[in-house]
Design brief:
Length: 69
């Protein structure tokens, strides 16, 4: 009898979880990586490559320093 009640409660819990209606997720997730950045949403994903950094040498207090943008 105990096993029958356990199985019956498992079936009822499963049936109850299947009748619940879920909503669509409309969230957008974005991440920024070392080489590229990307966003993923409900309608698809986009990946963008980062541009090549433009570096130049600048004289700061008598020392040459490399500055990258």
């Amino acid at each position: 009898m105990r096993s029958f009640l356990l199985i019956a409660s498992a079936v009822v819990a499963f049936a109850a979880s299947m009748t619940c209606e879920t909503t669509d997720a409309n969230a957008v997730v974005c991440a920024r990586g070392v080489y590229r950045a990307g966003c993923a949403g409900a309608r698809g994903a986009v990946v963008v490559r980062r541009p090549v950094a433009a570096c130049r040498s600048v004289l700061v207090n008598g020392v040459w320093v490399r500055r990258c943008v």
